[in-house]
Design a protein that fits this description.
CATH topology: Alpha-Beta Plaits
Low-confidence stretches: none
CATH class: Alpha Beta
Number of strands: 2
Strand content: 15-25%
Shape: globular
Mean pLDDT: 82
Length: about 80
Amino acid sequence: MARDDARHSAADEPGCRQFDVVLPETERGQVVFHEAHGGRAGFDAHLGTAHLARFRAGFPAPPPQERPGRFAALQHG
C-alpha cells in the first residue's frame, strides 16, 4: 500500500518532487515516508488524492500516530 501511494504520488502529482518509503534496519516494524513537494499547496493536494485514500483505507485500524511534517523553502544555486 505504501509503495502504491509513493509510486502514484511521484507519477501523478505535479507538486511531488520525491517520495521514498524507507524500512530502517535498526527499527524493525517501522516505516519512514520521506516526501518532498514543491510547496505546501502540493502537499495539501496530495492529501485529497485517490491513492492516499486507498492507502488509508487499507489499514484495519487507524495507522500509528503520524509525526508532523516539516516545510522548508529550498533555494537552488
